[in-house]
Amino acid sequence: MDYKVLMEEAEKVSTKAYAPYSNFSVGACILTSSGKTYTGCNFENSSFGLTICAERNAAGSAIADGERNFKAIAIYSPKRDLCYPCGACLQVLHEFGEDMDVILKSEQELKTYKLKELLPGGFRL
Ligand code: THU
To answer: Is 9 part of the annotated catalytic residue set?
Structure first.
């Protein structure tokens, strides 16, 4: 699948974010090795620590559908060029695709990283 399309899905779902406290919306779209896609947005809570990031929300949807092999994820925020995933999300994604691509948007360009570049030495049991 074209990563431009993946990013368009991430942009679309970012409009659904529930982010009244930070006002920082994020959308993510995961592509699995079987070619399916799963979107997620961040949703915050008045007990701030309970906030769920867009990436982990998308990962949960994929896992709930039986998908455990992630090929790529596109991440988008209207508030930030190159919206890098936080450390917690990198570790969660690492569990399901050490070799996955992480696609970020800068101005009108897409930048693709390997998850390993962003999280070298991710933890494994
Ligand atoms: N956020 C994400 O959705 N993904 C990240 O990787 C970093 C942060 C969200 C969480 C919170 O709702 C808002 O962005 C500000 O931290």
So the answer is: no
Distance from the CA of 7 to the center of ligand 1, in angstroms?
17
CATH topology for 3-118 is Cytidine Deaminase; domain 2 (3.40.140)
List residues near ligand 1 (CB under 6 A).
19, 22, 24, 26, 42, 44, 51, 53-55, 85-86, 89
**pLDDT digits over 27-60, tens only?**
999 999 999 999 999 999 999 999 999 999 999 9
- With vertex at residue 42, the alpha carbon angle to CA 37 and CA 44, rounded to the nearest 5 degrees, is 155
* Dmax (CA) of the chain: 39
Listed by start position, the domains of the chain span 3-118
| Residue 27 near residue 12 (C-beta atoms within 8 A) | yes
pTM for the predicted model, two decimal places: 0.97
Atom of ligand 1 nearest to the CA of 44: 12
pLDDT per position as a tens digit, 88-123: 999 999 999 999 999 999 988 999 999 999 999 999
